[in-house]
From TrEMBL, chain A:
<feature type="transmembrane region" description="Helical">
    <location>
        <begin position="151"/>
        <end position="172"/>
    </location>
</feature>
<keyword id="KW-1133">Transmembrane helix</keyword>
<feature type="transmembrane region" description="Helical">
    <location>
        <begin position="228"/>
        <end position="248"/>
    </location>
</feature>
<protein>
    <recommendedName>
        <fullName>ABC transporter permease subunit</fullName>
    </recommendedName>
</protein>
<feature type="transmembrane region" description="Helical">
    <location>
        <begin position="21"/>
        <end position="42"/>
    </location>
</feature>
<feature type="transmembrane region" description="Helical">
    <location>
        <begin position="179"/>
        <end position="199"/>
    </location>
</feature>
<feature type="transmembrane region" description="Helical">
    <location>
        <begin position="75"/>
        <end position="93"/>
    </location>
</feature>
From TrEMBL, chain B:
<keyword id="KW-1133">Transmembrane helix</keyword>
<keyword id="KW-0472">Membrane</keyword>
<protein>
    <recommendedName>
        <fullName>Cardiolipin synthase N-terminal domain-containing protein</fullName>
    </recommendedName>
</protein>
<feature type="domain" description="Cardiolipin synthase N-terminal">
    <location>
        <begin position="21"/>
        <end position="62"/>
    </location>
</feature>
<feature type="transmembrane region" description="Helical">
    <location>
        <begin position="43"/>
        <end position="62"/>
    </location>
</feature>
<keyword id="KW-0812">Transmembrane</keyword>
<feature type="transmembrane region" description="Helical">
    <location>
        <begin position="12"/>
        <end position="31"/>
    </location>
</feature>
UniProtKB/TrEMBL annotation, chain C:
<dbReference type="InterPro" id="IPR027417">
    <property type="entry name" value="P-loop_NTPase"/>
</dbReference>
<comment type="similarity">
    <text>Belongs to the ABC transporter superfamily.</text>
</comment>
<dbReference type="GO" id="GO:0005524">
    <property type="term" value="F:ATP binding"/>
</dbReference>
<protein>
    <submittedName>
        <fullName>ATP-binding cassette domain-containing protein</fullName>
    </submittedName>
</protein>
<dbReference type="GO" id="GO:0016887">
    <property type="term" value="F:ATP hydrolysis activity"/>
</dbReference>
<dbReference type="Pfam" id="PF00005">
    <property type="entry name" value="ABC_tran"/>
</dbReference>
<feature type="domain" description="ABC transporter">
    <location>
        <begin position="4"/>
        <end position="232"/>
    </location>
</feature>
Length: 256, 65, 292
């Protein structure tokens, strides 16, 4: 327990002093502000563009749903990508710089390394995501004040998908140990494979990818909560298995 | 249009401040840094100023490890 | 009780055997010098002792406990100084040692005292700068401090002096000598003068095994031969008569002959040496002998 808290403190100090913690928080808050803003100005911009090109059409005013649509587009793509790029090297950079050797040769349990780094990533992701979602929620409430269906569940799905990506990063890191590029590529490869598999509607309903594809559908009432039960359970299960595999694999990883 | 800007200030002010913190921090770090892993000081200053958000993030990821 | 015991150790990387049947035993409060050329397997052996690499065959015991790869239990007895120690460079020395103390389970109440004591020992007391601004020598000294934080029974140093200037080397050797009061030290090197200066025992690693071991406090390495300094022309005359091993300028090293034989031969040919002396082998001579 002392080992774990010491290691966790080390991660916090590290990400604070190299400004990564702050940077990711700022990016997530920017996403939180930018999403309702884009939803608000989009009709105006569209209107101007159309007027310039002489098309006459009625553009409907934006709604709360548009604000959340922007949020999920930004978070599922930009937010997650930046998160993985900024924090995905949490294990590999210790290998490429050999900084773990001093600690492991002192009796630091390898399991603790994986557990603490995973918990830290989950902590940062959760903190950043909740702040970002809250910012969008408050703006949306203020500017539109309309009810949407299943808002919390919809937010939770992207959060869960984030946990899945974190577990993927940790497991890939134990496989490739010192190459962050290999970790990035394998995460990208898995996501692309899931997207391709999603072409079959029967398969799509069971993949983690389904979670970030249906946030808006859920809000609009096109998708029912029971439709996301299976992908949620599967994503949760796969995430746990990947964390477990990372721990097992890391126990036997040679360190040079 | 002036009315619009007024209306958008609750968004523009926080967005501007957040970006300012990101860019300013990156610039201070770049000026203090002695050895660069990739590129040089001038190139990073330009990247951080021109590419907002992405520029500072690239700098933190590539140069600050 | 032996602090470190290695039995029948084998290790190969991709079919290429690096360690072949290595046997080693080191007792307490010794300084054991582990010498061998680059690539002889010194670092590989140390990493197996630390459980960082898996051994193919054989057993390693630290304080009579078996070392298991990936399981870091025996490491609580061991301190390790890698050849190029790497730290979290955004910390200062005290912060780093505090982290190490927490990892090794040093009591919170005893941490400050222990850290002060170690910084004093390695001459980094009061050093406030971040580790990223440290010189090689300072990093090496901090490396010793971090390795000793939990008062290990065994300190393993991988080429601790190789990358340092002469002054830095002297400082490290002095520290290593000093800490044998508390711990056993094993260090690998290819700088033989360092070994002669501080080691109690030496093992020469060659072809994956310890081919020769000495107790430097007791044994001499034996006689090398008799060194005779002569005029340049004398060589041709003596060559057919005496077994001349080596010549350094006008000094000839003659082996396998008694002093009397040499005197008699020189006298018979009316050759008068300016110097004649029995030479002892140095560690370097032995090293070259067994590794060629």
């Amino acid at each position: 327990m002392i080992q774990m808290s010491a290691l966790f403190r080390k991660e916090v100090v590290e990400s604070w002093r190299n400004f990564r913690l702050m940077a990711i928080l700022i990016v997530f808050i920017i996403i939180g502000v930018l999403s309702p803003f884009t939803a608000l100005i989009l009709p105006d911009i569209l209107g101007m563009v159309m007027k310039d090109s002489g098309i006459m059409a009625e553009i409907p005013d934006s709604a709360a749903l548009d604000s959340y649509t922007q949020f999920f587009t930004n978070m599922n793509q930009m937010g997650l990508v930046i998160f993985v790029i900024v924090f995905g090297s949490i294990l590999t950079h210790e290998f490429s710089r050999n900084t773990l050797v001093n600690l492991v040769t002192k009796g630091l349990k390898r399991t603790n390394v994986i557990v603490v780094k995973s918990v830290f990533l989950i902590f940062v992701w959760t903190m950043g995501y909740v702040v970002s979602a809250l910012v969008t929620y408050i703006y949306t409430l203020y500017y539109w004040d309309e009810a949407v269906d299943h808002l919390i569940l919809s937010f939770t799905m992207t959060w869960m998908y984030g946990l899945f990506i974190i577990s993927l990063v940790m497991f890939a890191s134990t496989l490739f140990t010192n190459s962050f590029i290999a970790v990035l590529l394998s995460v990208v490869a898995i996501v692309i494979m899931m997207m391709m598999a999603s072409i079959h509607p029967d398969v799509a309903e069971y993949l983690p990818q389904y979670l970030i594809g249906n946030n808006v559908g859920l809000l609009a009432g096109e998708v029912e909560p029971r439709d996301v039960l299976w992908p949620s359970v599967i994503t949760g299960g796969v995430t746990l298995v990947l964390f477990l595999l990372a721990v097992l694999r890391f126990r036997k990883a040679p360190m040079n | 249009m002036n009315m619009d800007i007024q209306e958008y200030l609750p968004f523009l002010i926080p967005l501007f401040l957040l970006q300012l913190v990101l860019v300013a921090t990156a610039l201070v770090m770049i000026i203090r840094q002695q050895d660069f892993r990739y590129l040089n000081r001038m190139a990073w200053v330009i990247i951080v100023i021109i590419l907002n958000i992405v520029g500072p993030i690239l700098y933190f990821v590539l140069e600050r490890r | 009780m032996s602090i470190l015991r290695i039995e029948g150790l084998k290790k190969a990387f991709n079919e290429k055997t690096v360690i072949e049947n290595l046997e080693l035993e080191v007792g307490s409060h010794e300084i054991y010098g582990f010498i061998g050329s680059n690539g002889a397997g010194k670092t590989t052996t140390m990493k197996m002792v630390l459980g960082l690499l898996a051994a193919d065959e054989g057993d390693i015991y630290v304080c009579d406990e078996k070392v298991r790869f990936g399981d870091t239990l025996t490491n609580r007895h061991v301190g390790y100084l890698p050849d190029v120690p790497e730290f979290y460079t955004y910390m200062n020395a005290v912060e780093y040692l505090k982290l190490c103390a927490d990892i090794t389970g040093v009591e919170k109440s005893a941490q400050k005292e222990r850290i002060d004591e170690l910084l004093e020992l390695v001459g980094l007391k009061g050093e406030k700068t971040k580790i990223k601004n440290y010189s090689r020598g300072m990093k090496q000294r901090l490396g010793i401090a971090q390795a000793l934080i939990h008062r290990p029974k065994l300190l393993i140093c991988d080429e601790p002096t190789s990358a340092l200037d002469p002054k830095g080397r002297m400082e490290i050797l002095k520290i290593l000598k000093e800490i044998t009061k508390e711990t056993t030290v094993i260090f690998s090197t290819h700088i033989l003068t360092d070994v002669e200066r501080i080691c109690d025992r030496v093992g020469i690693l060659y072809d994956g095994a310890i081919v020769k071991a000495f107790d430097l406090n007791q044994e001499s390495f034996g006689e090398k031969g008799i060194a005779v300094e002569l005029d340049a022309g004398a060589y041709e005359t003596l060559k057919p008569l005496l077994d001349i091993r080596r010549m350094v300028g006008t000094t000839y090293i003659i082996a396998d002959h008694s002093m009397k034989e040499i005197y008699d031969t020189l006298h018979a040919h009316k050759i008068y040496p300016s110097k004649i002396v029995k030479e002892q082998k140095s560690l370097e001579d032995v090293y070259l002998e067994v590794t060629s």
